Structure prediction request, 384 residues.
Amino acid sequence: MKALVYHGNEDVRVEERPKPVLGGPGDALVRVTMTTICGSDLHLYHGEIPDLRDGDILGHEFVGVVEEVGSEVRNVRPGDRVVVSAVIACGACWYCQQGLFSLCDTTNPNPVMQELYGHSTAGIFGYSHLVGGYDGGQAEYVRVPYADVNCLVVPNVLSDEQVLFLSDILCTGWHATEMGEVRAGQTLAVFGCGPVGLMAMEAARVRGVERIIAIDQVPFRLSVARERFGAEAINFHEDEPVKTLRELTQGRGPDVCIEAVGFRYSRSLRHTVQKKMKLETDAIDALSDAIRSVRKGGTVSIVGDFIGFANQFPVGAMMEKGLTVRGGQVHVQRYWRDLLERIRVGEIDPTFVITHRMRLDQAEEAYQLFDSKADNVLKVVLTP
Prediction:
């Protein structure tokens, strides 16, 4: 089969790899009909995630058709169209039973992660051996463990493009608003207008938020936020976010700030230098701005990816302002049935982020395009 394979920093290639086989009675073999490149895949592309190995197959957002199932699989059968969760959960451990699927105790018993973070969290498709070493979905076929938990059957009346983002970013955007307890009448600031940030705005729109303020540096992404959500836009190359947010809210600050930027991007010389000198792994410029901007007693919700440690974290502002700060990987299986129904009835249309459609054998070119942010790219979908 064809698959997108990692070989080093900015070196990914479409190659022939053996077709996977079932590894246990709870597995399913899925033939991929559509996949995509996530913003977090760029961390892999640039070799920034620990324990990513030469030969790993990338990709964690995909939809397809079940070809084969193990003897214990009950919820899906051959021929079913399914979207597959990026987060691999067992469904049976204590965390899964609480609906905390991305914290699954079973799918990634990793001593390295346990040493780094104090505990090991769930496996993720195509996202390094730190999270299980599972082959990813930028391929023609994928083995899906715990298929009854990690596959959601989708109706034929919905296209692959409509359901694809249930695998990650649509659920992640919803997760951001859940953690932020976003509700009607509030003012929301979203740091980062990539696909995840825009999906958070989509979720906030459904929840009836009164006002959205979008912060980014890419004019096209800010224009999408303005045109689709009526957002007020702050280009942080032109205006200082903390000062501008204070002015836009008569000095009070937003009720909720969502951080959808992550560790890669620094706009300050301080964090740029510290990352280059290996004094920190994560830049927190956007997170610091969110903590300083949000109103007293407000909430900061973090869905941007962070992997290690950062300096100059504004713990004093967090404490003295009485903030609630929450973060975490998305519990896909907790949200995807509700969101599927919202798509089916037309309340949500996640396809607005798709700007480019390419073939899987063009994946190398697609990564270069997505990384460069050229040609007004937001989301590239790939078909085998």
Notes: The mean pLDDT is 96. The chain is about 30% helix and 20% strand.
